[in-house]
Amino acid sequence: MRNALKVQRAMHDLTQAALAERIKVSRKSINAIETGNMVPSVVLALKLAATFNVPLETLFQLEPENP
């Protein structure tokens, strides 16, 4: 899964810590999502999209599967 979380965070001038505080998760969770080490829950993904006022698909895209 690809994500644009870091891009959106930068566009809104938020640090990982500030974003984490805003949505009530740890900074490590934000970092793990940005680096692709963690896939967020549906609830967390929706909170992130709502925080940036963007559609969920703007933040997260599925990688094409190899046949």
Descriptive notes:
Helix 2 packs across helix 3. The protein is 57% helix and 6% strand. The protein is mainly alpha-helical and 67 residues long. It is globular, with a radius of gyration of 12 Å.
Structural class: mainly alpha
Distance between the termini: 17 Å
Name of the level-1 CATH class: Mainly Alpha
* Strand order, sheet with most strands: 1-2
Count of all domains: 1
Q: pLDDT below 50 for ≥5 consecutive residues: which ranges?
A: none
Instruction: Specify the biggest β-sheet.
Output: 2 strands, antiparallel
Q: Please state the oligomeric state of the protein chains shown.
A: single chain
Instruction: Give the % helix.
Output: 55-70%
| Number of helical stretches of at least 4 residues | 5
User: What gross morphology would you assign?
Assistant: globular
Radius of gyration: 12 Å
**Tally of DSSP β-strands:** 2
Strand % is: 5-15%
Pfam families: HTH_3
Keywords: DNA-binding
Protein name: Helix-turn-helix transcriptional regulator
Domain HTH cro/C1-type: 5-59
Provide tags for this entry:
two-stranded antiparallel ribbon; 6% strand; 5 helices; mainly alpha; 67 residues; 2 strands
List the SSEs and their pairings.
Layout: E1 2-3, H1 5-11, H2 16-23, H3 27-34, H4 42-52, H5 56-59, E2 60-61
Antiparallel strand pairs: 1-2
